[in-house]
Amino acid sequence: MTSPQLLGRRSVLTGAAALGVAATGTRAETVFDAVPPLKSITPYPLGVAVKVSQLDDPTWVKLATPNFSRVTPEWEMKMEYLLQADHNLHFDRADRIVDFAHQHGMSVHGHTLIWYALEGGDHFTNLAGKPDAFLDAYVGYITSVMQRYAGRIRSWDVVNEPVRNDGSGLRDCLWSKVLGNDYIGLALEAAKRADPGALRFINDYNLELTPKKRSAFLKMCERLLKDGAPLQGIGTQTHIAADISPQAIRDAMKDIASLGLLVHVSEVDISLQEDHPANLAQPLKHQISTLNALLSAYHDVPAAQRYGLTLWGLRDSDSWINYQKNSGVMNVKPDEPLLFDALGRPKPLTRAFVRAVK
Ligand code: G3I
Questions:
Q1: Is 225 in a helix, a strand, or coil?
Q2: What's the gap in Å between 356 CA and the centre of ligand 1?
Q3: Which atom of ligand 1 is found nearest the CA of 320?
Q4: How far, in Å, CA of 44 to CA of 96, rounded?
Q5: At 46, phi and psi to the nearest 5?
Q6: Region 114-119: what's the mean pLDDT?
Q7: pLDDT on residue 223
């Protein structure tokens, strides 16, 4: 048997092993030991980002469904797909994701309604000079999307990444330009009216890397709560590099949990290439210690506040980090930021997760 065939067979076997299913081949052929279905050993919902193309990939489906209890649409439930140039809402792909999740007993975290980075083409910009009409369209968008999935989507990132990266305040964006900084409270109010049963989150990144940003984010949340905004949860994305200080993770988690809101560790990947891990003597070892620090810090959050932890991709080959500007063209030296390798096999990082999650 030539090596490619052997490798192919190995990946099938270890793919099976990754499901916690006894591999049918000989022991020698399973490159990695089996891991138990991860969602069965995790004391809070374990999520994974999903794209419709992955629903048509049997390897992805066979690996994701026994290991994760929640999905977050990676991009096809965002304005960039839903609201197209014809000014109509295109729910076909988001519907597929929600149907898939429910067919497999998985919950859905809706991502995301309002984001500075997406303006929905000219649908909203055409109304920028008419604040009342703009507000109607803004509330209308949130309402139409949420009501379509009322009762089927448990929670939403109502607003994504509102705070400037340097923590100097809220980002300037189309929404703040027309509606003022109250666009955030208005979105939360509209979300509550649209589907009162869905939990409402604000989601942001670098809350562990940039204490000034974290402080500005939390002050924004406190101000919203003081003003009576129906905010229920914080999403801390946790796109981190292997060389981040474990103390930075612990400090961030403690501060974020201090508001008493639900805490969703919402988009985890631990890059070996971003920032400066190249100067790490043993990047994989540091990646494991960073994962351990994250899981331990999240374990210290009161159980009632632990909304769950979501990986921003299933296999290393699924990671957004590995595609130049999401173009679909893979980078020359792919990163390995997720729990399963490019072939869907568990890694030492996966076994570290099994050991550390509790
Ligand atoms: O699939 C199409 C492909 O057919 C087409 O040829 C190609 C070029 O137009 O686009 C492909 O779709 C892209 C998709 O990623 C592929 O996965 C979309 O254009 C592109 O916009 C989309 O990017 C997503 C990005 O958010 C913007 O929505 C990434 O997948 C997704 O990982 C990223 O996720 C964000 C979170 O929402 C917020 N936090 C940061 C995180 C990473 O940037």
A1: helix
A2: 31
A3: 32
A4: 25
A5: -110, 120
A6: 97
A7: 98
d(CA 156, CA 143): 12
Regarding the beta carbon of 325 and ligand 1, being less than 6 Å apart is answered no
Q: Do residues 35 and 20 make contact, with C-beta atoms less than 8 angstroms apart?
A: yes
330 alpha carbon – ligand 1 mean position (Å): 13
Q: Name the residue with the closest Cα to ligand 1, atom 32.
A: 320
Of all protein residues, whose CA lies closest to atom 28 belonging to ligand 1?
75
In ligand 1, which atom is closest to the CA atom of 319?
A: 32
Q: Give the distance between the most distant pair of CA atoms in the chain.
A: 70
Question: Which residues, 6+ apart, have CB-to-CB distance to 355 below 8 Å?
Answer: none
3-state secondary structure of 244: coil
Protein residue with least CA distance to atom 27, ligand 1: 75
Q: What is the pTM of this model?
A: 0.91
Q: Is the CB of 328 under 6 A from ligand 1?
A: yes
β-bridge mates for residue 310, sequence order = 47
| pLDDT tens for each residue of 254-309 | 999 999 999 999 999 999 986 665 667 788 999 999 999 999 999 999 999 999 99
3-state secondary structure labels for all residues of 146-165: HHHCCCCCCEEEEEECCECC
Distances from the Cα of 4 to the Cα of 7, 9, 12, angstroms: 5, 8, 12
101 contact partners, CB below 8 Å, separation of at least 6: 70, 71, 107, 108
State the CB neighbour count (10 A cutoff) for residue 300.
11
pLDDT digits 0-9 by tens, 6-33? 334 333 333 443 443 333 344 443 445 6
Residue 261 is classified by DSSP as S
Q: Is 349 exposed, middle or buried (0-12, 13-18, 19+ CB in 10 A)?
A: buried
Distance between CA atoms of 305 and 258, rounded to whole angstroms? Answer: 10
CB atoms within 10 A of CB 280: 15
pLDDT of amino acid 326: 56
Q: Can you tell me the distance from the alpha carbon of 3 to that of 353, in angstroms, rounded to the nearest whole number?
A: 30
